[in-house]
Amino acid sequence: MQGSEFTWAVAFLVPYAAVFFVFAVYPIGYGLAMGLDPALYAELYQDPHFARSVINTLVFVGLSVNITLFLALLLSGFFMRRRGWIKALLVVYVLPWALPAVPAYLSFHWMLIGEQGLVNGLLAALFGIDGPIWFNHRGLALASNIVAHIWKWMPFWTVVFLAGRMAIPEEIHDVADIDGATGVRRFVHVTFPLLANLYLVSTLLATLWTLGDYTAAQFVSGGAPALSTDVLATLAIRYAFDSAQPQLGVAATLSALPVLIPIVILLLRRVQTMEVQL
Fold first, then answer.
1. With pLDDT > 70 as the criterion, what percentage of the chain qualifies?
2. CA–CA distance from 96 to each of 40, 92, 205, 208, 276 (Å)?
3. Rounded Cα gap, residues 223 and 111, in angstroms
4. Would you state the pLDDT for residue 222?
5. Residue pair 135/224 in contact by the 8 Å Cβ criterion
6. Number of other residues whose CB lies within 10 A of the CB of residue 248
């Protein structure tokens, strides 16, 4: 009887294992194998476009993640207020994150295009000034990508921190009020220490996701001017499809592993530590 049950268990398991191998193990393994040639990295490091993309990636990830999470943490305190209009505003505030990324970023792109764009039109109508040509300047184009990313993802992290604040027992706030810790003092000495683990894990997750973000740089600035605002994700796509060098595209992607692997290890250890504490 036991042998029969084992046979049926294997029979049910084999299709799932086959699907996992075909759609997960094989593509990932094949991709990694494509990027193992050291000559690819020698060619990659000699390309000035790669070095510029690395710098853009560091700036894009560093500013996007830190500004997004800091503002989200502050706004989560505002949305904790128990007022009807604030709850209604929260629903509207979450909408940018609920929108599909591609049309949202394309909207940003068209709002910044020349005199016909919404931003420059408002500058001319309200202040009588001519706005800049946003995508003709590397700094402005990169800043546009960052602002668009922050606008898209800040609602999500605000809701995460809002849930973290709601999980704090009300008794702790009552004791803080009795001790005279209100306002900024309560946030610094009570709320933030209790949210520190959540903030750290959120920062690590946001860093992982933002490192692989392709849509902001591709659909807001499009790499303009002259592909000077490419990040590693968009550069890899250009190598693989525009230049017909898929191996070089894989190598560009794998070049981020020295940063990704420590973040993943730190994230897993932090999550395990939180589980032990709970």
1. 95
2. 39, 8, 20, 21, 35
3. 17
4. 94
5. yes
6. 24
pLDDT of residue 1: 45
Looking at every residue in the chain, the average pLDDT score rounds to: 89
Give how far Cα 127 sits from Cα of 13, 56, 117, 123, 124, Å. Answer: 67, 32, 15, 5, 6
Residue 93 to residue 260: CA distance in whole angstroms: 31
pLDDT at 6 over 60: yes
- CATH number for 246: 1.10.3720.10
**Number of domains present in the structure of the chain:** 2
Q: Residue 141: which residues within 8 A CB-CB, separation 6 or more?
A: 134, 135, 221, 224, 225, 228, 229
Q: Which residue has the tokens 């593509």?
A: 27
Integer-rounded Cα radius of gyration of the chain: 24
Q: Are residues 30 and 58 in the same domain?
A: no
Q: What is the C-alpha end-to-end distance of the chain, expressed in Å?
A: 42
Domain coverage including residue 9: 1-34
Model pLDDT for residues 123-146, shown as the tens digit of each residue: 888 888 888 999 999 999 999 999
Residues 86, 211, single domain; the answer is yes
Q: Kindly state whether residues 22 and 59 are assigned to the same domain.
A: no
Q: Which two tokens stand for residue 178?
A: 């009795």
Asked whether residue 108 falls in the same domain as residue 201, the answer is yes
